[in-house]
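Lab notebook, bench 4. Still working through the backlog of constructs that have no structural model yet. Next entry is a single chain of 675 residues. Request: give me the structure tokens for it.
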Amino acid sequence: LGLALYASSLCVVSGTTFLYHDYCVIGAGPSGLQAAYFLQRAGRDYVVFERSHAPGSFFALYPRHRKLISINKRYTGKSNGEFNLRHDWNSLLSHDRRLLFRRYSRDFFPDADTMVRYLEDFASLLKLQVQYNTAIVHVTLERDRQAWNGHYFLLTDQDRQNYKCSSLLVATGTWVPNVVNFPGSEYVEGYETVSTNPEDFAGQTVLILGRGNSAFETAENILGVTNFIHMVSRSRVRLSWATHYVGDLRAINNGLLDTYQLKSLDGLLEGDLEDLAIIKDKKGKLHITLRFYLENRNTSAGIDSITLPQDELDNFATRAPYDRIIRCLGWKFDFSIYNRSLRMMPGKGNKKKYPQIKPSYESRGTRGLFVLGTASHSVDFRKSAGGFIHGFRYTTRAVHRLLENRHHGVPWPSTVYPITQLTNSIIKRVNEASGLYQMFSVLADIILLRDAATAFEYLEEYPVGILAELETQTGRKATNGLFVVIMEYGRNFSGADKDVFYYNRAVGEAQHAWQSNFLHPVIYYYKRLPTEREMKLRPPDWPLPRPDAIHHIVEDFLTDWTAPNAHILPLRRFLENCLSTDLRNFFAESCFLFAFTRQKLPPFCWQGYVRMQGLVGSEGLRRHAVEAGLLEDYTLTDFLGDRLPDSHEGSQDQLLRDHAIPVRPLQHLVNAKDE
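Model written out:
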């Protein structure tokens, strides 16, 4: 039987044997393992290829100084697991509570070695199908009309073993170092190889190329032993607390900013690295000059024959020679293994280090090829958390749901509720959901109205960039209008040049909620599904086209949107205005009154009270009905003649039982009144 099963997974193309799987995942880093988890839970045929002997090989080397910048907040004061994931930036999603990162480290900023151990346990405890020591060196296409996507993906590893897949999930991350070539760049040390021992830099003068977390991490490590450190980059420093982007400079690494601004020798400079040149003198010192000074010059002729900037400008900023120059320019995606037939093209501008993909995370050039994890960050680069574990664990789940619908006919998971639960459902999600919170402006909850707005269907964490394709991508219908629940920062609050600590920066009044600066829920209402054209023409920096109505829930200092007057009441009134209905909850006595005094009952009365088996009689209800003029105040003698009851109280109960109003007559009365 084993041989038969093995043979069934083999196929032969032009004399070459291919091992077939429905899904191939390249890379067993966090996003690759996350994808494997969802595929395994769904019972799909898949394999994960990992070039190293263990998962998470990137974290075995990086960050070089072993301190992660992803927070591990072990205590939040709440026991809700979904809420706690908002402040756990390292755990992957699974059903196994043993695989929460807080069980692996007590550190707020954990050690990278702990991440390696965590990923090893994630793969082994969940028994994920990972094939180690397998480096995929070439990927190409084979056209076939019978394939899921009109073609198969053919993969070859370092041992010339061939594999064939219907869908390809690329989870390799960005691991190729960014290198800038200029005259003298051979004297530059790379972040990936530079010493991490501070004593190797004692008494030295150092220049660092770059201004990201890796550059500041390196500077932080040697700050106390160097003569001084200079840092050069083409752009100004971006602080994460100002940009609200976790990939910008984090406070844990910014010691150099103190020593720069407090004039303790260290400094930051801006300049295009491609305009630089490095000259090495006879003593081994490195001098910075500009490329145009070397035009038509022989750099091997010696430094004495080369003009330096300080020869013309005697206070040139980098006139002092350096002992070492370190390159810390980040990483880029490896395009080298993909055949031209896949049309894997780099992005444009500051996204050129990532492959071009759609908002659905599918390649723009090849159907069926999806990019996961850090390499998919072009969708929300410098906007949200899609390049980091606490963001792409949710986008990976979204991709899996898209694939389940496309290839297996499994619609996007949803829950149907009566319309009376609309306000509660939104309040619950904005207060608990981690995916909405981390992937703000990218993932949203979609509420599809059904049955003349008497019910709704709730879809969680759908990519808003493909909202126009919702019906085909999810298998759900949006024929009666929809709400989109999303989290956003204020439009003009984030930026490298913004003062995010200015006085009166927070909004507290519900009527000014649209001016909220900090992260807060926003609800968009559309009478119909937006079109592709409307998505393309949406206003700048808007995640969605202009809606028929929009509501901001005012920002909250505790991120706790449960205040009855400030949060819930304005939301409920907004929903009521959109639906032209009453979403309040009522006591039975009020529903009883409405049944006889209104042409249309509120949804709560129709969906709850009227569908009961009948009115339960009580003395309080009878007296209320009499006082309201809804019932005649018949005396007991009208029903019992001259006979007096043995017990006055017992006769009243008997009276109410005998005259209990069943549901059908009540509905008949209401219908008659409507007519």
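Notes after review: The chain has four domains: 19-176+332-402, 185-329, 414-579, 588-619. The radius of gyration is 33 Å. Flag for follow-up if needed.
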